[in-house]
Amino acid sequence: MGQGPVIALSGGVGGAKLALGLSHLDLGDDLLVVANVGDDFEHLGLTICPDLDTVTYTLAGLSDQSKGWGRADEGWRFMAALEQLGGQSWFNLGDSDLALHTLRTGALSEGESLTAVTQAITRKLGIEARIVPMSDDPVRTMVQTTDGPLAFQHYFVRDRCEPVVTGFDFDGIAGAQPQVDFMVALSDPELQAIVITPSNPFVSIDPILELPGVRSAIDAAPAPVVAVSPIVAGLAIKGPAAKMMMELGMPSTALAVAEHYGDLLDGFVLDHGDQDQADAVAALGIRPLVTKTVMESLDDRVNLAREVLALAGELGT
């Protein structure tokens, strides 16, 4: 395995699992995890950053393994009291989780950047990898549906992904600047790999890729781009990606994900259950790798991360 930075583009649960695997490969602070902030929103006077926090809790060993989000051993007395008082209780905020949101909201109100707040939090939690937001500027994903436009968390949590999706908009993206460390790493001559984690292509990865200058910087980067499919045997391991694909008129297949990313990719990782699509991926000019992508254990996460970087190493020679 080569030396030098590795960039991982991540959404929430699936991306955080692979990021955890990468963090066990002795990369230290050469691992830069760029988290989607399109899911962020203001709720109960607090700035909530679901993907950023899922990655943070996962790499800190604090995540709830059964839920896949939030902190382990969480309490819910705040939510119970809020509901009793008639407050908005559709989005769960755990008692311990509130500490992070309160700290961040206060720091942002005092003029600190989201990057600086995140760095302070991750250092306190003992995380060696660098976790950064995709931008310090606010970008908000709007889900276009047959019922009208919905803020992402309203679609995802409040309405449980039930509305039929017709498209996506990213409010604020035209004026948003990519996070500085992200852009610096993309131009690093020692860059090993750019990894697109198995996160939702439309609402987790596309917001990162559509930031001004990011696609061209990735195209010009000295390292190969390898994506891991979030679709296995026609289903999304977590979240609504497969449902979205069908509603957008796309087949819910790993191949369709590879086609969505297109010539951005050098390599694409499919699960054994999608081995029959490997030749079609290769026909796109993308090197396929068939392996186990369903990450049920820490060993699975580490093994997949190792295989992804090995593929990147082969592509980079």
Write structural notes for this entry:
By secondary structure, this protein is of the alpha/beta class. The chain has 13 helices and 14 strands. The strands form four sheets. A seven-stranded parallel β-sheet has the order 5-2-1-9-10-13-14, sandwiched between helices. The protein has a three-stranded antiparallel β-sheet with strand order 7-6-8. The protein starts with 5 loop residues before the first strand and ends with a helix.
Low-confidence stretches: none
The major β-sheet equals: 7 strands, parallel
Question: Structural class given helices, strands, pairing?
Answer: alpha/beta
| Distance, first to last CA | 12 Å
Strand order of the largest sheet: 5-2-1-9-10-13-14
Shape: globular
Q: How many strands in all?
A: 14
Radius of gyration: 19 Å
Mean pLDDT equals 96
SSE order: EHEEEHHHHEEEHEHEHHEEEHHEHEH
Number of helices: 13
Secondary structure: helix percent: 25-40%
Question: Strand percentage, roughly?
Answer: 15-25%
Topology (SSEs and partners):
Elements: E1 6-10, H1 13-23, E2 31-35, E3 41-43, E4 46-48, H2 50-59, H3 77-84, H4 97-109, H5 114-124, E5 130-133, E6 140-145, E7 148-151, H6 152-158, E8 165-171, H7 180-186, E9 193-196, H8 201-209, H9 214-220, E10 225-228, E11 231-232, E12 235-236, H10 241-247, H11 254-261, E13 267-271, H12 278-283, E14 287-291, H13 298-315
Parallel strand pairs: 1-2, 1-9, 2-5, 9-10, 10-13, 13-14
Antiparallel strand pairs: 3-4, 6-7, 6-8, 11-12
